[in-house]
Amino acid sequence: xxxxxxxxxxxxxxxxxxxxxxxxxxxxxxxxxxxxxxxxxxxxxxxxxxxxxxxxxxxxxxxxxxxxxxxxxxxxxxxxxxxxxxxxxxxxxxxxxxxxxxxxxxxxxxxxxxxxxxxxxxxxxxxxxxxxxxxxxxxxxxxxxxxxxxxxxxxxxxxxxxxxxx
Length: 166
What we know:
The chain is of the alpha+beta class. 25% of the residues lie in helices and 23% in strands. It is built from 6 helices and 5 strands. The longest helix is centred in the first third of the chain and has 13 residues, at 22-34. The protein is globular and about 45 Å long. The protein starts with a helix and ends in a 12-residue tail after the last strand. Residues 6-19 and 161-166 have low confidence and may be disordered.
């Protein structure tokens, strides 16, 4: 692991526990911007998400060939590209990879897609992880981008598979 999660984020691994509802706030802003159709990236940029923007990403689907093409990556999420996971078939998987793994699930469902997961960091610590991805469309109908948000916390003696509770 290139960086220690605790060093990056203090006591919490991703968003502070007071911010575990980040995914709900993003979906609420997405729904307000939608107005009967898929919101655009431009409309979402006008959303008042405050510090939540640090935990948000946006991906251009047309330019995403083999891996996500980020058009926006919050400052805190950018740091997750150094946090590697263990217990995976591919030891190069990072928390950022896990956060963006569901971008096509949001496309397929044409709606926000939630994920709750427990992942193991390469040092053996467990992270309770929540993310959401939601479709965006520049023309309101054809999905062209994805917006997402990530939150989580280090598990202290948490059994495997424990889910975050809102």
